[in-house]
Amino acid sequence: MCGRYTITVTLEELMLHYDIYYKYPGRYSPKYNVAPGQQVMAIVHDGEKNKLGELRWGLVPEWAKDEKLGYQMLNARAETLADKPAFRKPFERKRCLIPADSFYDWKGTGKHKQPMRIMLRSKGIFSMAGLYDTWTSADGTRISTCTVVTTEANELMADIHERMPVILPREMEAVWLDRSITNTDALRPLLQPYPADQMFAYPVSSRVGNVRNDDELCIEPLSLLL
Questions:
Q1: What is the pLDDT of residues 82-104, one digit of tens each?
Q2: This prediction's pTM
C-alpha cells in the first residue's frame, strides 16, 4: 500500500537528480502530504531525454467509461501487472518514475493506528515505480493519470504494513523508463522490496491523515511534537 508520500526537495535538486536541464514550465512547491487524486510530479522519457511533468494520482485506463475508476487504481500490485487489463499495456509501454523522499503508512489496527514516515537512510530522493495512461472524456478532455507499483514488504516494512512501494535502485531508473523495452519479463527483476537495511522509519503526528495538512509539521518526529 502507498497512500501518502512527501517530496520536499527544491526544484533544482529534483531536476539535477533526473538529469533534466530545460526550464521547467510548470509550478512546483515542496509537498509534505501528497494524497490520492492530486496532481503529482512524475518523470517520463520521450525517447531522447527525461521529462518532468504532472500526472493525477489514480490511474484511469484509456478504455475506461468513467474517470472515477481512478480512485480504485491508486496502487498496482507488481505480481499481477501483466494480468490486469488496466495495467497490462502501461506496464509494456507507459512507465514513469514518481519521485519522493519519504512515504507514510499506518502501523497497528483499529482506531489506534500510528502513522509512520519511511525514508532512505541517505534521506535523499528516491524513485517509486509508476505506470501512467491518458484518458479522454466524452467532451474531448484529456486527463493523464498514474499509479504507484507496490510489492511485498521488506523486513522493516513488515512491522508496519504488508505492502510497500517499489523503490527502484538509482542505476535501474533508466531501465524502467526505457520505452524500447516492451518485454515485461525483463522488468520483473526490478519489482523487488528495497533493502531494509538502507531504510528507516519513525512515528509522526496523526495530522498526516488529513489531506488539508501539508506543512513541515507532518514530518516532525512525534517525540518532538509531544
A1: 999 999 999 999 999 999 999 99
A2: 0.95
Strands 75-77 and 142-152: parallel
* Cα-based torsion angle of the residue sequence 168, 96, 151, 192 in order, rounded to the nearest 10 degrees: -30
Quick one: cell of 216? 513541515
- If you ran DSSP here, which 8-state letter would residue 18 be given? T
Task: For the chain, report the end-to-end CA distance as a whole number of angstroms.
Answer: 28
Nearest to 225 by CA among 212, 208, 211: 208
- The DSSP annotation for 121-189 comes to TT---EEEEEEEEEEE-TTS-EEEEEEEEEEE--TTGGGT-SEEE-EEPGGGHHHHH-TT---GGGTGG
Q: How far apart are CA 35 and CA 4, in angstroms?
A: 5
Contact 187, 96 (CB under 8 A): no
Beta-carbon contacts of 208 under 8 Å, excluding residues fewer than 6 positions away, are 4, 33, 104, 115, 218
Length of the chain, in residues = 226
Report the candidate in 63, 60, 42 with the shortest Cα–Cα distance to residue 52. Answer: 42
Alpha-carbon distance of 141 to 201, in angstroms, equals 41
